[in-house]
Amino acid sequence: xxxxxGSRGGRKLRLKGKGIPARxxxxxxxxxxxxxxxxxxxxxxxxxxxxxxxxxxxxxxHLGV
Length: 65
What we know:
By secondary structure, the protein is an alpha+beta fold.
């Protein structure tokens, strides 16, 4: 399965004909869940801060927070 660029968590993708076997075969649906590596070290936290500065992205913007 290929994940399209720009996909977000919660997006539903369909694999046509890959679901329950029947005549015709059903479709299989996948819901994306995004998992990030934990920032357990100071260097990992620094990398996340640099990433945040470079993208200027607020993941909570759509929540009104």
